[in-house]
Amino acid sequence: MNVTEYGTLMVQCSSLQECTVLAFVLDHLLPQCQIFGDRDCPALSRVFIASIASCNHSPDAQMALVTEIKGALQRALALPESATKHTRIRSLTNLISIIIDSCPSPGGQVPNQMFKGQQTVMNNIVKSLLKKGLVTDLARLPHSLDLSSPYMANTINSALKPLETLSRSVNQPAQSVVSKVKKSETETSLQQTTESQEDNTTGMCLCFVNDQFS
């Protein structure tokens, strides 16, 4: 399925405005407070979205998914203070962690499960989330919530895990560049050393030949 094509189909309901398929899934099928479908819809929605996140062969589909998640988070934050608002926000923040874990790492590297929470992740989904500014959205999440709400603590805690993962990954590209520069400098130094040794060896051989014929 090409999400970049089918994801733009409009869903129309008597009680809802037109929206994309992914927006409908994120707003009305993913949260536990959903009123459409059956009780299995939230779990199946997570599986469906995780499968899209794992499609490294289609970066456009991954970017479309991240864009829809960002929009769904903004819509949830705009709701009036209620239990439904917090449920929808928590479903989306938990989903961000799911799609990060579902996206394969570049080069087929398998993360060490024992130190999974401490490792820096930089896959296509993380890059898309950073590009779309999800770090800022998660950090500003308390600004759209009632601090006296009994659901406040659970909602903030659910946002901390993806925020920590993305924050840890922010400096990863710069570290990679520095690593490549250092590697290049090391290779250049080794090459120069090798050439110098070869020149010295050649010079010593010429001196020996001259001594023999003089």
Compact description:
The protein has 214 residues and is mainly α. It is 65% helix and 4% strand.
Structure description:
The protein has 214 residues and is mainly alpha-helical. It has helices at 3-6, 21-29, 41-53, 59-77, 83-102, 124-131, 134-139, 152-169, 172-213, and strands spanning 10-13, 16-20. A two-stranded antiparallel sheet has the order 1-2. β1 (10-13) and β2 (16-20) form a beta hairpin. α3 runs parallel beside α5 (83-102), α4 runs antiparallel to α5 (83-102) and α5 (83-102) runs parallel beside α8 (152-169). It starts with a helix and ends with a helix.
Report low-confidence residues grouped into runs of 5 or more.
Answer: 174-179
Q: Tell me the overall shape.
A: elongated
> Ends: how far apart?
83 Å
* Strand proportion: under 5%
**Number of beta strands:** 2
- In helices, the fraction of residues equals 55-70%
Estimated structural class: mainly alpha
Which strand order do you get reading across the main beta sheet? 1-2
Radius of gyration: 27 Å
Mean pLDDT: 79
Provide the number of structural domains: 2
How many DSSP helices? 9
The main β sheet shows up as: 2 strands, antiparallel
Order of H and E elements: HEEHHHHHHHH
